[in-house]
């Protein structure tokens, strides 16, 4: 029987309209008057940042904005943001955006307090003290970063991703408001929603799963899967948006107390090398890893299939797992997720390097089935060769 430790220091305020209480919440939870908003240019164009500034200033806060955050957040952006936070003497950081913004904000909080480079804190439990308090407002239903204690950053020189894992960077407060996702384009809804689905699936099947993370992962799947297609095709469906957002947060809680696995290892390899959006990268490899892993955790893969309604109790575990593989492939097609072979930057000569990068990822040991560098190479080749060339959507 497994011993379990569960520590979620993040306060969660979830529901429609919660964003409108930002100023009140910050006043309640933050000491001091200087707030640095970390965001990106795309979020600024939505008007959310302007609203946030107005709500904070109404409560007497002095506010500055740092918006130089790129997708697949970069070490250089974090270093620049850390300097901005330090020069401003920020008392708290408000991260307003998707996973890249949130992960950047976590690294910025570290660098404001401790200096150095993000790489100095890579690995597990390498942040020695508390850092600047972080308040997170996700604008996508995908990463679950609002409730995790990790930040995935790109090393721009080495073109690889590394992860900072430490309870000191867990957000103080997460404001989870589905209304902020209503205007999200369908392709972003699809890719971020698939990211959340992968988080739940890998948290449930990985070797570090436990009874608490299992419960969270199963509940996440119940929220995400039935609503993902609807949210993509009808972004104004309030019910679908709500369930997708709640499911994403649950999935974040699940994998942060278990782990992800080889889908993420492969996705982060191409994300670091090609700068591929993370949710798309996860979607590309999900069916192949599910197929690779199914026999190692047959009962759990079958449970997933039954939970999301594509298999029944009358189906054998083997048949249910087969249906899961097939459905994950079909789901990606239904959501118009690009295929691996459709990415113009992909070069088969890179696959040996990508396989090694995936193998060295810290989550490889957590995969349900032991996996070698050579097997990663085969999986990259399989994902590439089995998918027809098509136009990137």
TrEMBL record:
SUPFAM superfamilies annotated for this entry? Dehydroquinate synthase-like (SSF56796)
> Is Cell membrane among this UniProt entry's keywords?
no
Which domain of life does the protein's organism represent?
A: Bacteria
What keyword terms does UniProt attach to this protein? NAD, Oxidoreductase
UniProt domain Alcohol dehydrogenase iron-type/glycerol dehydrogenase GldA: residue ranges: 9-178
Pfam families from the xrefs?
A: ADH_Fe_C, Fe-ADH
Stored InterPro entries: ADH_Fe/GldA, ADH_Fe_C, ADH_Fe_CS, Alcohol_dehydrogenase_Fe
Q: Which Gene3D superfamilies match?
A: 3.40.50.1970, Dehydroquinate synthase-like - alpha domain
Annotated PROSITE patterns:
ADH_IRON_1
Residues forming the Fe-containing alcohol dehydrogenase-like C-terminal domain are 189-384
Its family remark reads: Belongs to the iron-containing alcohol dehydrogenase family.
Protein name per Swiss-Prot or TrEMBL: Iron-containing alcohol dehydrogenase
